[in-house]
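From the shared-data thread, chain only:
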Amino acid sequence: MKSLFLPLILVFCIFLVPSVSYSASFSKSEIKNEIRKTLKEEPQLIFEALKGHEEELYDLIQIGLEKKNKAKIRDRRLKQLTNPKLARKYPKRPIWGSANSKISIIAFSDFQSATCSKADKTIIELLKKHPEINYRFRHNPLGIHKMSRPAAMYYEAAAIQNHEQAKTLNHLILKNRLKIKKNGTKELDKLAIAANLNIKKLHQDLNLPEIAKKVDQDIAEAKQLGFTASPVYLVNGVTVTGARTLEEFEEVLEMINSQTP
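Structure, as tokens:
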């Protein structure tokens, strides 16, 4: 992780620290030492350098931690096969794939998270390759995006109207999170119309108490399960956190299938 993070800081600081002269006569070691000295004296430069890149930094840290802890993660998942984290399935809410499949994935996600948006691309690919899997979507907004909850409400209101159209809207919201962040509910309305939903009925259903209740229940359940980040995927109770690759999901599926009679 350090090997990835330090060069990033050094590149930023070359442009942020005008007091240092980077002539050709300086060795790489001397430049690093001068920058370290400057950062020690003015640590706020690090935050200035990373401002506006918080989500990219989060992804970078997650990748570094996952690589470092890969063996630990595998051991934890093997233990979860016999002691899974179980979430409620709510059979009357939208389900992708077969409801009776032996493989179930429950996502706890945030419609406005860059990582969740990225992860959804893999989920779409996974469900296309394994249509037998049943997939369910739950809400766990991180609390840092003002449009996360409105987007969650739109999805749940759409689900009252039509499950298939709600599933279409689900992927559209995740794909267009930046437009939603910029344009708010106007963009959500556009996406709902694109998903062939009745926008007038959707607006009426948004006011139903059960809509907010579903979102709040999901948030409470995520907290109860110990989830402090999004997305988290429960694959038969085995946790997969963050924007993981298709190959990693396949590894988890293989792990589960090898234990299933």
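The two ends are 40 Å apart (CA to CA).
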